[in-house]
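Sequence in, structure out.
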Amino acid sequence: MEVSSLPVELWQLILSYLRLPDLGRCSLVCRAWYELVLSLDKTRWRQLCLGCLEHRHPNWPNQPSVEPRSWREAFKQHYLASKTWTKNTQDLESSNCLSLFRRRKGRRQLCIGAAGEFSSLRAALAAASPYDCLVLLPGVHEEQGEVLLKVPVEVVGQGNLGDVALLASIDQHCPTARLCNMVFMPARFTSVLYKTTSGYVQFDNCNFESGQLQIHAPGTCQVKFCTFSQSSIHLRSIALCVLENCEFTGSENASVTVEGCPSSDRNWACKHLAVLAKSCTASMREPDPAGCPMAKQDGWGESLLGPVRTCEIVVGEERSSFLSAVGAQALLGLAQEDTEFRENLQAAKEEEYPALNSNSSDSDLHSDDEEDAQAAYKLPYQAHSLSHTLADVTHSRLQSNRLHALQRDLKLKSLQQELQQDKEAQSLANSLQGCIIRQCLFRDGKGGIFIYARGQAKLEGSIFRDLTYAVRCIQNSKVIMLRNDIYHCKASGIFLRLSAGGLIADNNIHSNCEAGVDIRKGANPLVLCNKIHSGLRSGIVVVGNGKGIIRSNQIYGNKEAGIYILYNGNPAVSGNHIFQGLAAGIAVNENGRGQITGNIICENQWGGVDIRHGGDPVLRNNLISCGYSDGMVVGEHGKGLIEGNVIYGNKGCGVWMMSSSLPHLINNEISHNSIYGVAVFCRKDHAGDYSHGQGRSESFQEEREDAGGENNSDSEEDYPAAQRPISVALVELNSINHNGAAGLHVKSSEALNIIANVIHANRDDGVAVLQSSQLTCIANNSISCNSREGVLVEAECQVELRGNGIYENSSHGIVSKGEGVIAENDIIGNHRCGLQLLQAADMKVTKNRIQSFRDYGIALFDEAKGLVQENLIFQGTSKKSILRPMSNAEDCIIQNNVLLTFKKRFDMECMLINPPARPHIEGGAPESCTVADGQRVSSITTRVDRGCHNHRSIFCTIL
């Protein structure tokens, strides 16, 4: 009959009454009939799938309200899986026909129960032939002794699940068996419900209560649609087994234990299970909009963090976008504001000493003529060695474009992109070995999965909740976790230790009482593309020589550090978005290390990165922005190479350092922070100290002892910076601009080198040295357009200023009350004196080129003393003596200084030519980041509490 003879709706109604074999025959008639049978997916195929007593809803137990993509495909997979047990090929090839005949044609059905042929399972097994079906009638069936399963049979409970209960301990000695639709309860003499050491067993739609399954190689199993109540599975050296759509509740220990290296010897079922596992890949779950912090601001984000703050930066446009959508407009507005600020620099505040009044008529120029007068006397200085960096800073549009380009480069990668680029991760994701656990639910018990002694497990699409821990992987074992939900664990969600490894990817790990992922004792996993958030402690902890590759994760909303590295932990952390944490973004403590590159770290309550107590990481090319405190904190005895980062728009300082720390701060962009660009302090910060024994349910005592007694040679090879002795803090080749207070604020008790930086347009001094009991070297820097002095040196400070270009600052070029050397600097175009020596200053001022538009080139006050010699002083708008000593000190020597007056507009003598404008660095900007003695750098700190003058850092502790 032609399909077109009746409406499609009528055909669908007719076919909905057919049984499964009849539907199959109809689909073979022709293509039109085949498509007609396929169209019954949500009607007849759904009825067949849900009506089968051997199966449950395809998305049980995690999402029973969500329909599968195809009911027909789900039913097909159930059917194929239920037939795996019949594929035993251990028989000789010549007996295949006989074997098939036994399985399909000669199968008997033996009933067991009060109304059946046999009164007990033991009696029925004694009379059974291979592949017979044993039907347990409704009731409770109890076996007094251990039941030996010697022939392959199928044992099925009649009726609904729960109608048949079996109290027995079964030991399988046959190649294959299947048990379905019954409740297993332990016998009085043992807690072992079922055991096999050689054969394959298949459980479908069963309940296990208060007992244990033991599967030992070469045996294996397939468990589907089963419930384990206070029960567990122990797998030893299993080559491949599959647990699908199972529920585990109330376990007293681990629900699933995987022990031993997988062994496929004498295991006939492996190839069949591998085919089944590949065809039944876990369905990809749709992203949960509530999982993203900006999708629902009145959810966890508001309860933990309060309203999400509007930030000046937008990072990405898709799921990885976690900042305000109006950020781009705010950024452009901020850039325009900075342009106006630069063009309209405010006059400096009234100083302790008023400006010198000149009697020259040119000193009272009207404002209309001031610009022309300055142009007439202006010395071009733009061609110095750091001019290319300065051009990027002064061009606000270019600066904002660079920031957006950085955000695009640091865009979060998807798991598919990661797997395409990382062949090791791709191999792990595709591997099928050990225990395969899919779409299972683990809840309300002690543990989920425990893997040890080189065991292997793969977990996909499962939920772990309200457990003590979700996964523990130790002793060279391997775990692969894809698209799981892990939350409300009483300890860490995932725990890896003792050289464990594997792949942890695309999981949602949140709201755990300890770390989301805990990596220790040489464990080295791949942690990719996870969402790790809302934890009561840190997101990821790497402790005690733990390693790992942590990449492309979203880590947010945790109460402690997003990533916490300590006791020789040495992970590679790259491409992550770490944001909205209630403490530091990344904390490196207690000799922790790590390669931290290409991350976006923003909107954290404490420092974006916090390093202290011997922490010695490498931080490169990170965006650290919009923090509620300092961008980066280097506390007591902190170290590290901090290179190529953008530290932008933080509420505190850009970088806050302590004098006992020894970081190497090189080639960073530090801009638009609310307080100092870089602050170096010397008083110990007690608030930063962390008592390891207080308030912690988990101790690091063991890792602390191991870290104190071992030298990790492998990490030394991977970390060349750690092999070089460091004795002086170094701030080199950085761009420090548009910060809310001084560009570089120094209050140090240790030596400090400030080399080849661009310090521009900060809203206070360019460099302020308020305390320096040891020498602070300021060399080859460009210090320009700051709102007050270019350089301020307070009394009793030791400073060497050499080879700097100090240009167009709103007050004096250099003000010094301390002692030291000012040599070979260009101090040009500053709005007040070029150089001012006050109080008891004792400076050697030689070979500088100095010009001031409206004031004296060099001015000496009070008891200032020293040597002022061989300086070249260019005429400004004042016609009188530009060099004016005003000190009464007899030991102030002023000699061999040269005053140059402008004779014509482009007088070559009045150019910064020989040498060219400073900073002048041979070969351009230095490629090396070392000081002259080849040593790396250090830096200094105290705390800064809501302001920039009480010497304390805002929330600068790590945890």
